[in-house]
Hints:
The protein has 263 residues and is of the alpha/beta class. Helix content is 46%, strand content 12%. It has a single domain, classed as Alpha-Beta Barrel (TIM Barrel). The chain has helices at residues 13-27, 37-47, 64-77, 94-103, 113-116, 126-135, 153-162, 179-186, 199-214, 230-238, 244-258, and strands at residues 4-9, 51-55, 81-86, 108-111, 139-141, 168-170, 192-194, 219-220. An eight-stranded parallel sheet has the order 1-2-3-4-5-6-7-8. Helix 9 links the parallel strand 7 (192-194) and strand 8. The two termini are 17 Å apart.
Amino acid sequence: MDIIDFHVHIYPDKIAERAVESVGDFYNLKMNGNGTAETVLQCDKNIGVTNCVVHSVAVSASRVETINDYIASECEKHKEFYGFGTMHADYDNKIEETNRFLKLGLKGVKIHPDTQLFNMDDERMFELYDFLQQTKTPILIHTGDYRYDYSHPRRLKNLLKQFPDLIAIGAHFGGWSVFDLAIEYLKDEKCYLDTSSSFPMIGLKRAKELIRLYGAERIVYGTDFPMWNPQKSLEDFMSLNLTDDENELILNKNAKKILKLEK
């Protein structure tokens, strides 16, 4: 069975160690891996992950194009990668740049409102959301953090109400560190959610409950590498003892649908 990790961060070799350290400091966590493309590929090969969605976050508008070029170049070199570009609220030519990186082969957009310091439902992003909605281009959004309001689940709900056909994936079961709060806002919304950075915080029993509550047809598997050990993450997921149909939906079918890989 194909296994697609939908939430993987990669960084250029020369800055990977520094970038990973910065992420670890932001979350006060010990990281697991140096964040390079080669490390991801080796880890995936060892555990049977066939593909992953790779991305990086532009913490300022000036980094948008450089990061998108880097992600596109890694995807061109490695058939195992599907890339998502980055965007920032302060970037002026959002549609032009998004069109550019989509033509380079990238499959969607990733944003992280908490590290990029803008509200997920900031009106400066509306032109982009409308473009993504019209072109059926997916967007993966870091959602939830008890320390910040930028990515609050209610903002994702607001976004989905304004752009009802947007293909949005709310990372971390739609509410990192506020998992139960996310249910209040997202239980009945039309969006996907990923499993990344969740198992160590809520435990496997609660993770299985959330999958059943939201429905496996809305969930995609993700690790948030290099934040967590990919092997442990996959072992944890498989230990949930979901049905074969649920496993296939979460590990590959939903991802393939989002990425338009289905024939």
